[in-house]
Design goal:
Layout (H helix, E strand, L loop, with lengths): L11 H24 L8 H13 L5 E2 L5 E6 L3 E8 L26 H21 L5 E7 L8 H7 L9 E3 L45 H17 L15
Parallel strand pairs: 3-4, 3-5
Antiparallel strand pairs: 1-2, 2-4
Length: about 250
């Protein structure tokens, strides 16, 4: 592939050479991230690791308020922003991998170790291209904290003005159903947005032999669990994906 202005040769041999040269570094980075996962808004060392690699390549990353970071590459107005999430999940890893999580009860179970590794690779590649011949436009690389928490790090980054002046933004997500070396796209939404609704029930207790003198919260909860999703499906286009799980 060659950019329209023909200044950047990204033909297969050139790209393959770059990948072969960077693969050991990126593989080791990903395994360090996987071995040392951090939960939402606690990604302190994760952020430091990303920034150290960017600085080591000659870039000037900027730390966000709290956790997460970003780096701008190129010159001139923004062409776009690229975003990767960096937080892990409160899940015990049982894979037995040599680089399995060393943090009890926490692991990268949703691919965020892969996402940030890919985005680091993109940043390194763009920086190298820009060093050879200035890009002419700028690209903002965002390493977002707390994607797994609501409200998450995306809101925090927007509030900090990190999308101001950016005309478009792209995120990515790995998918084991897509064959290696392929990219999955579709018209419309490809991943779900989510929100949280908390419902608190309270009522007068009593003896189980006199249910008519009590408020049966178990029955009430069962009706909410069954009926609320049914009602919501009637308010959603049947062609749209919709799921309403319940839990503690």
């Amino acid at each position: 592939m060659v950019f329209a202005n023909s200044r950047y040769d990204l033909s297969t041999p050139v790209f393959d050479e770059w990948v072969a040269r960077m693969m050991p570094t990126l593989t080791e980075f990903r395994r360090q991230v996987h071995r040392n996962p951090e939960l939402s808004f606690r990604e302190v060392k994760t952020t430091e690791r990303i920034m150290n690699h960017l600085r080591g390549a000659g870039m000037s990353p900027v730390a966000c308020e709290g956790t997460g970071c970003y780096v701008d590459i190129g010159n001139g107005p923004f062409a776009l922003a690229l975003r990767a999430d960096i937080d892990a999940l409160p899940i015990e890893e049982q894979t037995g991998l040599e680089y399995a999580s060393a943090v009890p009860g926490v692991m990268h179970a949703c691919g965020h170790d892969i996402h940030q590794t890919i985005m680091l690779g993109v940043a390194l590649a763009l920086h190298e291209l820009n060093e050879r011949t200035p890009l002419g436009r700028s690209v903002r690389i965002l390493f977002q904290p707390a994607e797994e928490q609501l409200p998450g790090g995306a809101v925090q980054m927007i509030d900090q003005g990190l999308l101001r002046g950016v005309p478009r933004a792209f995120a990515l997500h790995c998918d084991p159903k897509v064959d290696l070396g392929q990219i999955g796209t579709r018209i419309g939404a490809i991943t779900s947005a989510s929100d949280t609704i908390k419902i608190h029930l309270s009522g007068h207790g009593g003896h189980t032999s006199r249910p008519h003198l009590t408020e049966d919260l178990i029955y009430a909860m069962s009706q909410i669990a069954v009926q609320v999703p049914a009602v919501l499906t009637r308010r959603t286009d049947v062609r749209s994906g919709f799921w309403s799980p319940g839990g503690r």
